[in-house]
Design a protein that fits this description.
Elements lengths: L5 H19 L1 H7 L3 H6 L12 H22 L12 H13 E4 L2 E4 L22 E5 L2 E5 L1 E6 L9 E7 L9 H4 L3 H17 L14
Antiparallel strand pairs: 1-2, 3-4, 5-6
C-alpha cells in the first residue's frame, strides 16, 4: 500500500470522511463545509502539493486539524443525527485525530514526540486500511503486513507450502501471529502511551469531541 507521512495521513483521513459524508448525508455536509475545502480536500493529498518548511507544514497540519475537529464537533453535537458518528469514516477520523492532535486551552495543536505519540505498532497509517502498520526487518521497512509461510523441507521430496498466515505487524520479532493476537504486549504499549500523554497534561489525552475518552 502507499506509505503516507503524518501530514498526508491526516489530510487523506479527513478527505475520506468528507467523501463518505457526501454520500450518506449530503445536505448535512453542504451546510457544514467551507468553500476552501473543495481545493484542500478535493484532490488526493500528496506530499508534493504540501508545504515543505517545518513550520509551514505544522501550520498546515493544524489547519487540517481544525477542519476535522469542526466535522467531529458537528457529528457529535446533541442535535446531530446519532447515526452520523457511527459512519466508519467518521470513527476513523476521531481515532486519527486523537493520535495526531491535542487540545490546549481549547486550541488544537499538532502532537509531537515531546508531547507523546502512539508507538508505530498502534499508529493508523492510512484511513483505507486500519490494520496496516509500520514494520522493519533488518534494512527493509514497510507499511502493511507480514506473511508467514510454512513448507516441507525433506531432502528426497519436493518442497511444498503447507500453511500461509498473515499478521498485521503488531507482533514483535519472533512472535507468531497467534501470539500477537493475545494483545498483552499491545495493550501494555497502549496504556504506556496513554499514561504518558496524561502525564503531560490531562487535556492532551482527551477525546477532541466533548471531552470524552476513547
Amino acid at each position: 500500500m502507499r506509505a503516507l507521512n503524518r501530514l498526508e495521513c491526516v489530510g487523506e483521513t479527513l478527505r475520506a470522511a468528507l467523501n463518505a459524508l457526501a454520500v450518506v448525508a449530503p445536505a448535512w455536509l453542504h451546510a457544514l463545509a467551507e468553500v476552501a475545502w473543495v481545493d484542500r480536500y478535493g484532490p488526493r493529498v500528496d506530499d508534493y502539493r504540501l508545504p515543505q518548511g517545518q513550520e509551514e507544514r505544522q501550520a498546515y497540519g493544524e489547519t487540517i486539524g481544525r477542519d476535522g475537529l469542526r466535522v467531529l464537533a458537528a457529528a457529535y453535537a446533541p442535535d446531530a443525527p446519532t447515526w452520523l458518528r457511527e459512519v466508519p469514516a467518521v470513527q476513523t477520523l476521531r481515532r486519527v485525530w486523537l493520535q495526531h492532535f491535542y487540545l490546549v486551552d481549547g486550541l488544537l495543536r499538532w502532537r509531537t514526540a515531546e508531547v507523546g505519540t502512539p508507538p508505530s505498532s498502534l499508529m493508523i497509517n492510512s484511513p483505507y486500511d486500519l490494520d496496516a502498520h509500520y514494520a522493519k526487518k533488518r534494512t527493509t521497512s514497510w507499511i502493511g503486513y507480514k506473511v508467514h509461510i510454512t513448507e516441507t523441507c525433506e531432502d528426497d521430496t519436493p518442497h511444498l507450502i503447507t500453511h500461509v498466515e498473515t499478521d498485521d505487524r503488531r507482533a514483535q520479532a519472533g512472535e507468531s501471529a497467534g501470539q500477537a493476537r493475545t494483545g498483552s504486549a499491545q495493550g501494555q504499549r497502549a496504556r504506556s502511551w496513554e499514561g504518558a500523554a496524561r502525564a503531560v497534561a490531562p487535556s492532551q489525552a482527551a477525546d477532541p469531541v466533548a471531552g470524552r475518552r476513547p
